[in-house]
Amino acid sequence: MPLDTSTYNLALLRVDGRRWNELRDQRGQMGVQPSADGSAYLQMGNTKIQAIVAGPNERDASKTNSSASTAATAGGLGATVAVGITVAPFATVDRKRRGRNDKRLQEMQTTLAAALAAAVQGQAYGPRSTIHVSLHVLSQDGSLLAALVNAASLALVDAGVPMTDYLVACTAGSTSSYAAADEAADPLLDLNTQEEQELPFLTLATLGASDKVVAMVCESRVQLARLEGMMATAADGCKGVRDFLDRVVREKGEIMVQEGAVGRGEVVSSMDLD
Amino acid sequence: MTSLKRSLESDPDSANFSSKVYVRSTKSGKVQKIVREVYLRQDIPCSSKLCMKCRNTAPANAVGVVNPFVLSDKPAGTKEYPQGHYLVPDTNALLNAMDLFEQSTAFYDVIILQTVLEELRNRSLPLYNRLIGLTKSEDKRFYVFFNEFRLETYVAREQGESINDRNDRAVRRAVQWYNSHLAQTKGNKLPTVVMLTDDRGNIEKAQAENTPATRLRDYVSGLENGERLLDMIAESQEKGISRDKKAADFLYPEHFSLSKMMTGVKNGMLHQGIFNVSPYNYLEGSIKVPAFPKALLVLGRDNINRAVDGDVVVVEVLPKDQWKEPSTKIIEEEAVTKNENADGDEGGDLVTEKERRALQEEVKKTHSTSTEGRAQPTAKVVGVIKRNWRQYVGHVDQSSVSQSAKQGRKQESVFLIPMDKKIPKIRIRTRQAGELLGKRILVTIDSWDRDSRHPTGHFVRSLGELETKAAETEALLLEYDVQYRPFPKTVLDCLPKEGHNWTVPASTDDPGWRGREDLRPLLICSIDPVGCQDIDDALHARPLPNGNYEVGVHIADVSHFVKPSNAMDHEASIRGTTVYLVDKRIDMLPMLLGTDLCSLKPYVERYAFSTLWEINPSADIVNVRFTKSVIKSREAFSYEQAQLRIDDASQQDELTQGMRTLLMLSKKLKQKRMDAGALSLSSPEVKVQMESETSDPIDVKTKELLDTNSLVEEFMLLANISVADKIYQSFPQTAILRRHGAPPKTNFDELSNQLKIKRGLELRVDSSRALADSLDACTDPKEPFFNTLIRIMATRCMMSAEYFCAGTQAYPEFRHYGLASEIYTHFTSPIRRYADLVAHRQLAAAIDYEPMHPAVRSRGKLEAVCKNINVRHRNAQLAGRASIAYYVGQALKGRVADEEGFVMKIFSNGFVVLVPRFGIESVIRLRDLAEPEPESVFDAENYVLKTSGSRDLSVELFQKVIVRISDAKDEATGKRGAKMELVKVIN
Predict the structure, then answer these.
(1) What is the least distance, in Å, from the CA of B66 to any CA of chain A?
(2) Which of A216, B315, B406, B843 is most exposed by smallest CB count within 10 Å?
(3) B687 pLDDT exceeds 90?
(4) A11, B30: Cβ pair inside 8 Å?
């Protein structure tokens, strides 16, 4: 059994050997499901997400806001974004099946739908159209909501849905628990499961590199004085994630150009490939 | 179709990642596979002050502060490593000899590897905590090197390699890296990094790889005063080598496996509880389990099966034909096993001949008694859930030391006889047996194997000569786990900077005055024992125009100075209470606060927390309010002075009038309390008078109680109750309260039976009121002390009061049985009790003076605090009593006195006498009565012991006797104490 988060102060190292302001290893790929309109695979540490985008389609009135997905309308009278999350039974340490009515999942769906709706330029489509985003959690190791946001963002780009910027998210925590009231606590970036269980943390979603906060979720008790530091850290993390997503998109673009899927001339005008 | 799979090798960063996979099984038996990421890096510093390279890459925390480098640039050396050395202990070295690493003479500049830290945490959490404590101490220079996260020192487990081998390899790799890393620095006196281990295989491998390594034992013997240190290495490792010598015969039955015990407890076949040893008979233990109202008896060495007093054990109830009465015999380990040889072979019978005989008599007696119902269920210990071993103080049994050891340096086994009679003898191996004789020493128990009659332990340190004041006081403090070290600097840093010059700010605009009421004009005074320096409380009373009185209790505002969760608060919460010994006080808070800034000294202004009542002349509360305030005490009285002043009719000033009002009201309050059924209990309390110059005890006096004592007490009770109400209203989940459970009726069975048979008196225990009344009726016209004696005995049947968090009990359980109050807390002594400090903070939040600090709001935290202070409170009481007992013994030194005493317990081979004059009780055994031991007949039903032969006597319970008290050293415990001889029995 390795050490716990209380040893941070001994050498300023976290349980997995990171410093306070380091993101975990991230990997991403677009177009992993060619039959879908848009798809992406994203890995933040051991949290692994597959995102599939279908649509925009004509809205099926009977299906919106069922327990399978939660929808939010983007851009005033524009398209609706519907989000569905499934967690694979093998995603956690204890194999367990999570039903569609899992309250935590539904809450995450609502948060995600609202956040994505804020980034998607829905007025490009009619008010009767819906964009379905299905998210599949293949493996879970902390920062789940943040990883879902990032994966959905990447899949929407792959689907060619217009967005104002990448919607990126990241978690931030604090090295000392709420009750410890330790004044010299460091903020932490991008928490894994163990850290999430032991320390207070929040998830922050921003629009691209700007500091525009689209969503913030904090379910643990944290001293008010530490909140600012945590938010600033999370915002920095979001910038890092945005750079990463951008890199993935550009790599994909380059491959598409090489493969001739897109004409070189068309691309250069809209996409700066240097 | 693209593939998701991407090989890690193609990634340039791949060398920097690794993952740790391990398997763990949960309590329910499920097996989980856990995967953790590991990020390998190169910026983990070596932390040596010699290294410039690491200094440049050293990491900073979020505010840019770099942890200072720890390891000295001029480390100490030995003959083998003249250049100096850094030590790298492996896990076993720490497991076996943590005491060594805590020494102040050696073991500086130690590198603790992450591998070792993790392993240690798995093996022993207490040791891990001690080690973390060491790494935080600045002068010991312990550095934790996270070798598993550094690229160069990370070691992947190879196929077929055991986890231990892998860890050993990781340690060796880290040592090699350190040596090569330090070699890069410029300088000619480079220290060597040395691995300390006791694993032979590991040493051999290290030598093959040319890694500096040494055996712990060899290293220690190379040190100065190495021999003293050698004893501190735990016993077990030596065994590791000699284990296979011969298959030992097992003396004790095997303990059940944990899962077997758990299943047993779950389905009700086995019972779990805390094992307690009888103070009169070391072969008799009892265990209270939730399933039965009465405690289960555990008799004999076989059944006790290596349980030590305080352990959490699991027992199995024995068949009914083995049920027995509790012993009526005094059996002392010393007398029975006196001649055992510590070095001798352990193969013999587990139960020695003498022990067997002692038990035999028991059985005979059980069969002869006619009353079947008196036999109690017995049980045997089948396993230990949690050992509650601590460090024990004792002395070496002289008889177990061989003559040659007194000169030579030969290692031999000796017995240590603990001061606490409930703890069995402990076998220790030492080379300095000769020197340890006649000293108080501290030891720990390492293990108790099936093949060993006694537990084995090792020497920790010597406290000094037996019977010297310093050694005995320290022994006492260690025995009761009292934190007596001076306050560390971090705590003292929390004190106000002005020190003794601190005063209440003159301007009322100062933030210190925020929300405070100015009560300086009130005529407030304090009443305390003579020479009291930490004055917690002060009082005032004045008539109101409407004929009622305003009464105020003003308590030192400690929470103003001790802010939650700082170092001082933390220290105080660990200490829990101030401990009062006869000649010494171990403070909970630093002196500056306790005796000056917080203490409500007369003639100066002080911050206080006031409770103000309006009380009508018949002592009913009209209303109550609480406020933070500033007061100025007019006078600090002692109880005697206050009494004199009240009694002196010529004193007619307002202050005295106020005190008279207080006295009048307190008498009415007391009457009300008594009517509600409050108990007046008793314990033999004495005071030791000291010579002022030499502080040698010269006399012992029983404590006198004046009206003023009860004056203060009544108002403190009232304040506590009012505060309890208030904080419970505001914080129904987290209020810190104090309860006193109603004792189970069975606790009084014996006493009420004794009273019925001996005196024809009835003890009713249905309610506290009934008990109080029937205790009042227990009098003997000829013997005024009889009532007190019964009260003392009744007190011992009670439960002890405890602190708790309101949310953990239902409201009816809040009741304080002894005080007959529905709700109670401690509020009035925040200088000396931590619970009061917590109550202050909660009350301050309840009156909206300040927001509630999270530490006072978290129930889990408060429960932990309650648990700790309950233990501390109890230990402080025991330590105080033990200190009095020691000084009574000293005061009696060289004197012989005939005193009256009372028989308070009777056994088949002796009886216990209480001498009220000195507040001491002692056992008089039959063999002490005459030589040879007289024949005796014991009538257990009528509590009469008749002797004949060499001395004819008839002793019965509650009887008055004259005893001759002289001082003598108790060979068993090494304590000097009163020895009693029976002079005559008074009929």
Answers:
(1) 9
(2) B406
(3) no
(4) no
Contact yes or no for B861 and A179 at CB 8 A:
yes
Cis previous bond, B932, omega within 30: yes
A44 located within any domain: yes
Q: Which of A106, A212, A197 is nearest to A163 (CA)?
A: A212
pLDDT winner (highest mean) among A256-270, B488-502, B532-546: B532-546
Encode pLDDT of A12-36 as tens digits.
Answer: 888 888 888 899 999 999 999 889 9
pLDDT of residue A77: 65
Taking each helix axis as running N to C, give the angle between helix B834-846 and helix B567-575, from 0 to 180 degrees, rounded to the nearest 10.
Answer: 130
Taking an 8 Å cut-off on Cβ atoms, the answer to whether A12 and B60 are in contact is yes
> Number of structural domains, chain A?
1
Q: What is the pLDDT of residue A247?
A: 93
Which letter does DSSP use for residue B523 in this model?
-
Residues in chain B: 987
Question: Which amino acid, residue B354?
Answer: K
CA angle B431, B436, B442 (to 5 degrees): 100
CB A11 within 8 A of CB B146: yes
CATH of the domain at A104: 3.30.230.70
Is B146's CB within 8 Å of A11's CB? yes
B794: nearest Cα among B822, B819, B821, B763: B763
Which of B30, B36, B62 has the CB atom closest to A20's CB atom? B62
**Burial group, residue B806, by CB count within 10 angstroms (0-12, 13-18, 19+):** buried
Cβ contacts below 8 Å, chain A against chain B, sum to 100
What's the half-sphere exposure (Cβ side, CA atoms, 13 Å) at B134? Answer: 26
Please, what's the largest Cα pairwise distance for chain B? 110
Higher pLDDT residue, B755 or B986?
B755
Q: Above pLDDT 70, what percent of chain A?
A: 87
Q: Residue A2 falls within a domain, yes or no?
A: no
Most confident of B21-25, B807-811, B966-970: B807-811
Preferred mutation among B39, B119, B145 to probe A, highest tally of A CBs within 10 A: B39
Q: Using DSSP, state whether A240 is helix, strand or coil.
A: helix
Cβ–Cβ of B61/A12 closer than 8 Å? Answer: yes
Using the predicted structure, report yes or no on whether residue B575 has a pLDDT greater than 80: yes
Test the B interface: residue of A10, A233, A255 with most B CBs within 10 Å: A10
- pLDDT at B256 exceeding the cut of 80: yes
Contacts with B186 (C-beta within 8 Å, 6 or more apart), sequence order: none
Alpha carbon distance B3, B532 (integer Å): 82
- Distance of alpha carbon B546 from alpha carbon B540, whole angstroms: 18
Strands B17-25 and B31-39, by their bridges, are antiparallel
What phi, psi does B896 have (nearest 5°)? -130, 130
Range of the domain at A223: 12-270
ipTM of the complex: 0.88
| Confidence category of residue B482, pLDDT binned at 50, 70, 90 | confident
Residue B495, min C-alpha distance to chain A (Å): 18
Q: Evaluate the omega torsion of the peptide bond into residue A56 and state whether it is cis, within 30 degrees of 0.
A: yes
pLDDT over 90 for what percent of chain B? 18
Q: Within a domain: residue A36?
A: yes
pLDDT digits (tens, 9 = 90+) for A215-260: 999 998 888 888 989 999 999 999 999 999 999 999 998 988 888 7
Q: Which residue has the tokens 């005071």?
A: B687
Cα B63–B65–B70 angle (5° rounding)? 155
Local confidence band at B247 (pLDDT 50, 70, 90 cut-offs): very low
Domains and CATH numbers, chain B: 53-233 (3.40.50.1010), 258-386 (2.40.50.690), 489-733+823-876 (no CATH), 894-986 (2.40.50.140)
Both tokens of residue B318? 């024995």
User: Residue B9 — very low, low, confident or very high, per pLDDT cuts 50/70/90?
Assistant: very low
